[in-house]
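Batch manifest line 241
LIGAND: beta-D-glucopyranose
JOB: complex structure
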Amino acid sequence: MDIGGSGIKGCLVDLEIGQLIGERLRIETPQPSLPDPVYGVVAKIVESFGWSGRIGVTFPGVMKHGVAHTAANVDKSWIGTDVDAGLEQLIPGSVVTLNDADAAGIAEMRYGAGRDQGGVVLMLTFGTGIGSALFVDGHLVPNTEFGHIQVDGEDGERRASAAAREREDLDYPTWAHRVDRYLDVLEAGLWPDLIIVGGGVSKKAAKWVPLLTTRTPVVPAQLQNDAGIVGAALAAHERDN
Ligand code: BGC
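JOB STATUS: finished
ARTIFACT:
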């Protein structure tokens, strides 16, 4: 399951190949995006697949031990909420929650652009915000929040997310320049070996990735829209308890 600010999506996943099995189901995120109505939608989607096992769920904020700690682009009432416990009251199986970009990153590292990549790999998702997932020799450092590093006195995602491009009606070269500046600041602090760029805008990678002047190689994500769901399923499958 992938909980986003505009849509909640779910599907069964074939973890041998990292692909969705059949069609995913997407339902608009209730507005305001309060926990209880969102849980209701998640439960409905799980039920539609007749699934009673463990589920993986992504959330667009810091998730630690089932509890949401931030909510930059969803209702603030999520902060401090035990999402695992809330969902487990409504569905038959148990729940594993994780940050949305971490989920997308896990999927990319296993099945996509990060396959067999050692060293320091940084996955960034450009959407309403900017999500980040950091890997060291394939191991995730969870809950990095690089969308919120300060760039020229502003939250990085405020200037360089895909939503900023749309909101300000920027052409790709202008927006690429902002992304470049954002990546400069990240590179100065991290020195990654590879940067993977994901989110819907990675489908248009040819329009902006070649304009970047980073010293680190930048490649588009390969799983695109499905990465969050696939990564959530993988996390649920690999959780030990
Ligand atoms: C949130 C992150 C999230 C990203 C993408 C940011 O605003 O702070 O936790 O991964 O948006 O949804």
